[in-house]
Predict the 3D structure of the following.
Amino acid sequence: MTYVDGFLVAVPKANLEAYKDMARLGGEVWKEYGAIDYVECIGDDVPYGELTSFPRAVQAKEDEVVVFSWITYESREKRDEIMAKVMADERLKGDQWKNVFDGKRMIYGGFRAFVEL
């Protein structure tokens, strides 16, 4: 079974093109190092729920969109190897991505797949 890193962020609408540039570069780097899939999705039908919702989870503001993304790997071991290489890659370092979104409101985690159809 595969291993998946999942992410949820709120991106200011004014920064959406910069976020897309960052995501394209990130996807190229992750795939270069062996990720199976790299997917970024802009919220299209994500209503603000009374108790829980994607927008609530990241404290999305009126001028922000919710982005849900995931990266798929062969295994947790491969993910750890790939992640170490990605974090050391100079292409992803620097201040150009610093203010694209508020990383303090990002939700992320690693998940072991248990059903794959």
Q: What stands out?
A: Residues 3-112 form a domain with the Alpha-Beta Plaits fold (CATH 3.30.70.100). DSSP finds three helices and four strands in the chain. The chain has a mean pLDDT of 95.
